[in-house]
Amino acid sequence: MRCGWRGDAEWGQKMQDDLDDGATWLVQQGIADTRREAIFGYSYGGFAAAAAVVRPNGPFQCAIAGAPVTDLAKLGWSWSENRLQRILQGRTVKGMDPMQNTEKASIPVLLFVGDRDVRTPAFHAEGFYKAVKDKVPAKFALVPDMPHSMPWYPRQQLQTLGLIEAFLEHDCNRKG
Asked: Taking the complete model, does pTM exceed 0.90, yes or no?
């Protein structure tokens, strides 16, 4: 008997299917408009937003990835100082690696991360940005003095919310 969760080793796969299914359900219920659906996430949610950029036939018009993990191969050595935790939980962090699928990028993306983020270092967001910027509209922002977790200074909240608002207004594709 294998012990674990259904999401183990399913990053960007079954876990992402759930997000796509939820977005489809919202449209079917008349709650959301398929022409205006965006995905936003932070940390693991940032991974999910980056994964949506490279998954074919997804329901989203654009993605906003805050402090994303984009390179599962590099995550193994960067996400925890605890060796035992890296070994045990590291087995669960497998699946579709956005950095290995950047040629499939199909929707605009905004990526942002704090310059003091040690949990998901800037190389994740910046590397993904560099890999997709010639394929889809993409923006990258490094937020000064911002760590991974809250509390954030009001200036950091204002900056990230301003980035998101401008991206949704000007860069998110709208079908139809």
From this structure: no
